[in-house]
Specification:
The structure holds 2 protein chains of 2 kinds. By secondary structure, chain A is an all-alpha fold. Classes of the chains: A mainly alpha, B alpha/beta.
Chain lengths: 300, 302
């Protein structure tokens, strides 16, 4: 079994893969901006930077989900899809490239559905409860499980066993990681996030989304992502297996912590929120499948 | 329940669904019945409304909204629309996540707490059992689990409805392909016998653990005698009750249940602002209402 210290060097050499940090960092900063402040030209440039990502955007803009007329340029594809979707595609494609096809210890599509689902639900929840920076919530949701990519790269075989154990015992990935690896995706994700110089709040989300009370900074954001992650796992956007759990959300420590900042949580209709999430699932699944279809993974 | 794909939506449907009157109809239905349709699924609501619109000759969704809000027969129309919305929801094994939550979380919890008291018996009530699909599903589920999880346990299921015709059909237990569409071949062979060319009838063994009875949920004198229940299922029944009646029924359900017992509604129903005695508990793909023990203060229950 490898220790976290043993895999540390391999995490910090991940940026040797061409083009990853070059795109991820500017993207991460763009993703934190409200849509109206995003410079469209900058996004067009980022998309055009990479022909396979550009092709991906064009293909998606022309898919039946969006397309009524033919889209032929990167700019019109971006306008058709909307900036937020394009950014999700970009970031997703970049991160997807880190992991070669034979290194996935779990189903990549399921993982991206969970990540994008968590991003969308985080933003929705942020808006719903009046959290000031919904776009930061979106980015943090998208990246919260970064450590799973690290683990699957650094110890593929052990991580496969870890997912088998989690599925068989119907427990969380985190507890299977502790048992099988001795460390969790929160710890390994933090190493990569710091190495990539992500902002302190995103690093805090990556490290503490399963242990909200321990976060030294941004407790509201960390609590928000914890809840979105939980809601995803409860509504068919988890890790592709049945996690036996019963959650009294209103008594969850993250919910109670968030209630201090957002008094409107006390009267939020939780059942309606989860039914809304079910409703949004169609789009999330269509979006992820369009970006990460198995036949497209070879080209990105 | 999680969707696993998207339904192709025609252009006319998407244009139609954009009519803001549908959102108002959705909110009205939610406020009155507790049945909720997320915005992405308004096309389903629109198609249900269109059938009623044709009958009452309403030309636009806005005009139909007036049938539900300002016209003299609005209550009757709302009931007819609710019937349209819930139609076709009754078949066996309709909600696998609910059964999975029972198998993986709830039954182990109940077994632990009841074992400690020396009881090896479960009592379950299907309140508003309609034509019997729900109680028979529960009966098959429990019998299947009795080989492992529920080994040595006995259980009885009370299935009640107000409608005599539904109850007669439930007691007869004769079902066609629609009701059985989610029932595996294995279970069909085990718990059914052929009835005619197209239908099957439930076995006597399955019937023997269910007691059918006519109960009006608004009848206080009958409700107070139903005690000691572990689980109550009440799907698409409360939607027809006004707020005060709902609250009264919920009060009964709460006292009918043993401490630690669970109450389940239909998958799209919510009890928001109807009752705050129960704890809303999320399971993967299902929502349940829990009668917490008096000393309860935690969050994650497994």
């Amino acid at each position: 079994m490898k220790t976290l210290d043993q895999i540390r060097p391999s995490i910090t050499t991940l940026d040797a893969i061409p083009a990853i940090p070059a795109i991820v960092q500017p993207l991460a900063s763009i993703l934190q901006l409200p849509v109206e402040q995003v410079n469209v030209e900058q996004v067009v440039q980022l998309v055009s930077y990479d022909s396979s990502i550009a092709a991906q955007c064009l293909r998606m803009a022309n898919s039946p989900l969006f397309g009524r007329r033919k889209t032929e340029t990167v700019r019109s594809a971006i306008l058709t899809l909307g900036l937020k979707r394009v950014q999700a595609i970009l970031l997703g494609c970049c991160l997807n490239r880190i992991v070669p096809a034979d290194k996935w210890a779990f189903n990549a599509t399921t993982f991206w559905r969970h990540s994008l689902g968590c991003a969308l639900i985080s933003r929705k929840l942020a808006t719903l409860i009046g959290y000031a920076e919904p776009e930061k919530a979106y980015l943090s949701g998208l990246l919260h499980d970064l450590g799973m990519l690290v683990n699957t790269l650094a110890c593929t075989d052990e991580y496969r066993k870890c997912f088998v154990a989690a599925r068989d015992e119907r427990v969380s990935v985190e507890s299977a990681e502790l048992k099988e690896l001795g460390f969790t995706h929160c710890q390994s994700g933090k190493i990569l996030a710091e190495h990539w110089k992500f902002s302190a709040d995103v690093v805090a989300v990556i490290e503490f989304h399963h242990h909200v009370a321990e976060t030294p900074s941004d407790p509201a954001l960390v609590a928000l992502i914890h809840l979105s992650d939980l809601l995803c796992r409860l509504r068919d956007l988890g890790y592709g297996y049945y996690e036996a759990m019963a959650v009294d959300l209103a008594r969850d420590e993250a919910w109670l912590s968030l209630s201090k900042y957002c008094p409107q949580l006390a009267t939020l209709d939780l059942a309606r929120l989860t039914l809304d999430i079910d409703g949004a699932m169609g789009e999330i699944i269509a979006l992820v499948d369009a970006v990460f279809r198995p036949d497209s993974s070879a080209s990105i | 329940m999680g969707t696993t794909g998207t339904k192709p939506v025609s252009k006319s449907e998407t244009e139609d669904v954009k009519d803001p009157a549908y959102l108002k109809i959705r909110d009205l239905i939610y406020e009155i019945s507790g049945i909720y349709q997320p915005e992405e699924k308004l096309y389903l609501l629109a198609s249900r409304c269109s059938r009623r619109m044709a009958v009452v000759n309403a030309k636009t969704p806005a005009e139909y909204l007036s049938h539900l809000t300002t016209r003299a027969n609005r209550e009757a129309e709302l009931r007819l629309l609710l019937n349209e919305i819930t139609i076709g929801e009754t078949y066996m094994f309709r909600s696998p996540p609910q059964l999975e939550a029972l198998r993986t979380v709830i039954l182990p919890q109940l077994i632990t707490s009841k074992n400690a008291m020396g009881f090896k018996r479960l009592r379950i009530w299907s309140a508003g059992c309609s034509t019997g699909e729900e109680p028979y599903t529960l009966a098959m589920f429990l019998l299947e689990e009795s080989a492992t999880l529920l080994s040595g346990w006995t259980f009885d299921i009370l299935a009640t409805d107000l409608n005599d015709n539904s109850l007669s059909a439930a007691k007869a237990g004769i079902y066609g392909e629609y009701a059985l569409r989610s029932t595996s071949e294995l279970l069909r062979k085990k718990y059914f016998k052929p009835y005619d060319e197209k239908r099957l009838q439930v076995s006597d063994k399955l019937k023997s653990i269910i007691r059918f009875d006519r109960v009006n949920l608004s009848d206080d004198s009958k409700m107070i005698f139903l005690k000691g229940l572990d689980l109550i299922f009440c799907c698409n029944v409360l939607i027809y009750f006004d707020l005060n009646s709902k609250r009264k029924v919920m009060q009964h359900f709460h006292s009918n249940l043993l401490s630690g017992g669970y109450f389940f509604l239909g998958p799209a129903e919510s009890l928001y602002q109807v009752d705050d005695r129960f704890r809303l508990v999320h399971f993967p793909g299902a929502i349940g209402y829990w009668k917490a023990p008096p000393n309860y203060s935690g969050s994650e229950k497994s």
